[in-house]
Specification:
This protein has about 500 residues and is mainly α. It has helices spanning about 5-10, 20-40, 45-60, 90-115, 120-140, 145-165, 170-200, 205-210, 220-240, 250-255, 255-280, 285-310, 320-340, 350-375, 390-395, 395-410, 415-430, 435-460, 475-490, 495-505, and strands at about 70-75, 85. It contains 20 helices and 2 strands. A two-stranded antiparallel ribbon has the order 1-2.
Amino acid sequence: MSAQPLAESLVQSVDWLAVAPPVIAAAVGLGVLVADLFLPEARKAVLGWVSVAGLAVAVLMLLPLLDGDRSTFCLTGGATRACSYTADHFTLVIQFLVLGGALLAALLSVTNLTDDQRRVPPGEFWFLLLSSAAGAALLPASRDLATLIVALEVASLPAFALVGIRHGDERSSEAALKFFLSSVTATAVSLMGISFVYASTGTLYLTQVAQRLPHVGGQLHTLAQAGVVLTLIGFAFKTAAVPFHFWVPDTYVGAPLPVAAYLSVVGKAVGFSGLILVTVVAFPSYADVWGPALAALAALTMTVGNVGALRQQATRAYSAVRLLAWSSVGQAGYLLVPIAAAGYARDPQKAIGSTVAYALMYGAVNLGAFAVAAVVGRSRALNRISDYRGLYATNPLTALLLAFFLLCLAGLPPGIIGLFAKVTVFSAAVDAGLGWLAVVMAVNVVIALFYYLQWTALLFRAPEGEPARHRVPAPLTAALTLTGVLGVALSGAPQLVLRFAATGLF
């Protein structure tokens, strides 16, 4: 009879509806890899459309989950209930961002693979993209440290290969190596931190860790402190926070452009959702440690990112993708602000909601900017900022969309959603008593205005020489349309995402 509770605790009932989004992405990825073995070379383009359809279905499977929180892989025995997978509001919003971002990156990739099929094997590419998307969708639902780190690696490992997938490209290989080394270091640090937390608390479930950490005493207290700090450092690597950002510019420039777009949004969502889970859910009792540390990281990250983007102006033939890479580092600093504020705020959920609202805005408009870069890159291989001069004369709609996306990132009208998102992040810092961080953010917003507005103005200047005509294929048109409609809709009805800053997510 005494063995009965243990036996009951091992019985698992899987809620397949709750796990459907990541499972569908993974299943389609495996199907594409197998199909690649049998399809003739001339018909392998269909793999891209199958992958796009699979990601679209995964996004649609989020709709049945809106009726309430669902959990699976739970402990059924013991005094407290703990689950490894939870599909709550936070999970669904991040999964929408991740899978939607992967879908848009897939649309960019369909054209890119057609143009570069000799150097990029399509079957392997789509398998890696879908596998990474499956891991990224699993991560926000993870509610134990083991599942969290496994999801993080499932999202990261295929991304290394995606960065270096172009055959014979030394720059791509170098970018993949830098990305790999930095990410492996982050994983090693995170694993050491998690092992220390487990040794001091005896559990991996986030809610149980939160309950037991405040009561760890004696020599184990030092071990627990070291575990918390190392875990946070590991996730800071994943968010590309300064000083762990050094891989970003070279990786974005060396990777295929759709992969750079994917990393700029989905990669960030993975890092930030993991950071939110370990800080707010698992380590709330150590808010006096991670709150000031993340505030300092936020200030440093936004400053270095924006100054790095500003310095690109000194290079005569600087790359648009490199500028977007440095811009993404600066944007990561803004995203860190509400998480830092959660360590000081009475209601950390609202602070976290500000990060999620900003991430949704950033994801839509940044992917839109990369879509325009993909259009220009079809006729201008180097994709320099100077290649965008006079874009309005040849592709007026594309130029207007890029101008709108850049103004959103800058936080200027008519990019209303960018302005409001920055205001919510600024308010989160002020409400938490971090006035100095709000001042640093305001200064950085002004710095960023210079390079965003300079790029925007270039679009409407008279072209030099014979202007290039940019043909926009159907997949790129679809990506531009989706991001443009989403950006305009959010600017017209900003409450669609800003409500998260008022109500929270957990």
